[in-house]
Amino acid sequence: MISSVVFVPHGKADPKPKRYELSAGEMNMLHAVETNESSNSDALPPSPFPAPTPSLPEVDISTLPADLRMDKYDEEPVNVNVVGADSELVGTSLGADGIPEEDIAEEEEEDEDEEMEMDDGANQPNSDSDSDMSDDDFEPLQHDDREYEPTDTAALTAMGLGHTQTYPQEPHYFDDVDEEGEDEGDESDDEDTNLKPTDVLILSATTDVADDFSTLEVYVYEPPTGNLYVHHDIALPAFPLSLAWGDVNPSGNSGNYVAIGTFKEGIEIWNLDVLDPLEPIATLGGEDMSSIEAAAADAMLKAYNEKKAKTKKNSKKSPPPPPPTSVSAPLHPGSHTDAVMALDWNKVHRQVLISGSADSTVKLWDITKPNSPASTFTHHTGKVSSVAFHPTEGTIFASGGFDKFACVVDGRMANDSSKVRRAKIGSDCEELAWDPFKPERLVAAGEDGKIMAWDVRNMSKPIWKVDGGSYGVSSIAFNPKVPGMLATASVDKTVGVWDTHTISGSPHCVIKKDSTVGKLYTCNFYPSSDLLLGFGGTGGQLGLWEMVSEDCVVKTFESRLGQSTRNKVAKTAELDKAAEIDFEKIMAEENNAAKNAREAAGGGGKKKKKVGKGKKKVARKK
Predict the structure, then answer these.
(1) In terms of Cα–Cα distance, which of 386, 285, 406 is closest to 338?
(2) Cβ distance 373 to 363 under 8 Å?
(3) Which are the contacts of 443, defined by CB distance < 8 A and separation ≥ 6?
């Protein structure tokens, strides 16, 4: 099942994503080790283990028994089990000392050889007592003239320990090179992970309901070929409910990031330019995992003390050990206390994120200060299902919830609920959207299928209201490139396109199609193109709809499309026309060929029949 779909704007993703990236804690640890080694290479950090036990006092060996005084032994004894006069070794005779005679003879020969070698060495002027040793015995002392070849791996490069300083000209570190030095780029993994200028990145919050496993799937769509595939994915700790794309990280630097809201209380921020991330780069709110180890240790100590106290009272019979104590991590101060149902990233103040939760609160977060939220709003009495920042006024946002209200709030007035503007919705709010070309308009979709719009300067009455479907509208999205184009996704498995900038003032449905991917829960437009829509739902498959070939859509919004889109539409029409002409020509040729074949076959038969009749007539005259 797909619960949320978000596009990454063109040019925001790194065309050469990294495989790994170290966290801030790991980088600090490496920096500390590096600093310690550079300042004093001989100094060792204090050991966390206790000091070794002092050595035992020396003992006078003269007081030991004779069998323990090792200084009296000239050589190691031979461990031979002797029984009687003969050895247990078959065919071996023993000498007077109980040692086999063969071993005695071998020892005598070795002693004679050593004496002869010593005598020969003494006769040579520059001899050495160790001259019998070969050169192989000194291999570790010889100069090693082998060429050093540095090894680069993905992990070393990610840790900053690769040879980037030595080889600054190399753009890739992991290309496969054959024996002749030719680059085998077709077999390299970089060819599969690097992005092309025309690629479109799509984020999908996907859950396998059968296996209860959730992931963030990063899709790549190739418009020239129509290919769609999963580029990489990220395992999530819980069922995802909302996504929001942004380009600022906790350090204040630009990049390619996504915020994910799940059934947990925290909001995870992930780096999309890392293929195999181990953990999010930041978590807003949620469980305070830094204190869970201390809490677990306290629980274990408490259980131990209780057991010890009971043991003292009843020393005859030891009580059974207590059951294991479950330790739950406390929440960060200011965190949501329930699931995060809605997210939106501010496009004006790019470090600000807004979240709506099932705890009936709305929170504003500063990405560069992830420890606590900047403001908390409590103007809803039910679960907050949708939040949206104003497209041009970065301090204003809208929120909708299960209390059947759509609200407009100025973020600078967190504690003044009287300044909140409200509009009643007939059912639970599914989603809110601002009209980017008429920013005074706010549109909301309800669970009952009604879509309505207000002028936020006077929210007492909607300016228009339409029926989006009897089964309810689960998601709405405005096209940021085409004025008045509104997309709707419904539980009845259909996706529709509406024109909200009509002369009459009331929107009308331009087209509605079956999605073929199940009941729909989400839809979104690609912000860098005019006519590309993504959607998803219960089918678990990402759906894409390129509306360039939809005549009714092109005809309705033709005057509002960009020049590049118009050119694309004209080119598509020419290709379609050429394809139709070719098809008709092929069909005509096939029909003519079949007709000629039938005529040839039929004409030959008639001619033979006429010849036969003529012969008969001639015979009759005779």
Answers:
(1) 285
(2) yes
(3) 432, 433, 434, 435, 451, 452, 453, 476, 478, 486, 500
Low-confidence ranges of the chain (pLDDT < 70): 23-25, 36-59, 61, 64-189, 291-301, 304, 307-328, 571-583, 603-622
Strand 405-410 relative to strand 520-525, pairing: unpaired
Q: Of 414, 258, 286, which Cα lies nearest the Cα of 343? A: 258
3-state class (DSSP) for residue 338: coil
Q: Tell the residue number behind the tokens 């080119």, with chain if given.
A: 571
CA 378 to chain CA mean position, Å: 33
- The 3-class SS string of 453-503 reads EEECCECCCCCEEEECCCCCEEEEEECCCCCCEEEEEECCCEEEEEECCCC
pLDDT tens for 460-494 read: 999 999 998 878 899 999 999 999 999 999 999 99
Residue type, 567: N
- Structure confidence at residue 614 (pLDDT): 46
Q: Is the dihedral of CA 281, 285, 286, 289 positive or negative?
A: positive
Distances (CA, A) of 365 to 107, 371, 616: 87, 9, 108
pLDDT in tens, 400-430: 999 999 999 999 887 777 789 999 998 999 9
Pairing of strands 543-546, 86-87: unpaired
Structure confidence at residue 369 (pLDDT)? 85
Cα 391 from Cα 14, distance rounded (Å): 26
Q: Rounded to an integer, what distance in angstroms lies between the CA atom of residue 548 and that of residue 528?
A: 15
- 306 neighbors 312 (Cβ within 8 angstroms): no
% the chain with pLDDT above 70: 63
Distance CA 203, CA 271 (A): 12
* CA 221/CA 228 separation, integer angstroms: 5
Compute, in degrees rounded to 10, the torsion defined by CA atoms 572, 577, 581, 586.
40
Question: What is the DSSP code string of 237-267?
Answer: SS-EEEEEEEEE-TTS-EEEEEEEEESSS-E
Nearest to 243 by CA among 353, 93, 98: 353
Q: Which amino acid, one-letter code, is at 320?
A: P
